[in-house]
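Figure 2 data, in text form.
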Amino acid sequence: GALYDALKTDSSLYNEAARNKIYLVSPSSLLPALRVVSNLWMLSEQTENIGELIRIAQDIWKKFSTIEDKMASVLSNTDKQQKSLLELQNLLYTGRGNLKNKLANFNTAGTHYIKQDNVLTIDGNSVEMIPNEQTDNLAVNDKN
């Protein structure tokens, strides 16, 4: 009743209070008003939480983009490595003029060299093979 009597005496009282961000309530409107305020606070908190979730999602997206870029770089390097391995394979044993064929040709060409009892005969010339005491390698001593 007091609010009703005050508004009856001064009808501008409610508008002046609202301009000062004061809202007048009666005992019967107090609980609904408090529920509205509580709901507004929950909405405000949810909005803050949504903002935080958006920030986290943006951080995750940035991290994913970085990972995607690194993956592309790794795949590019893998392609380069694969190409280098194929080139090496060609040089060693599959390509034209490869090292394996050159060694096989050298091995075949060396069949006219004969070694018997530390004496190497090359096209009829004898070369004695003497062990090197320091390195255990064979040293060649030409008898001619």
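Caption note: The two ends are 140 Å apart (CA to CA).
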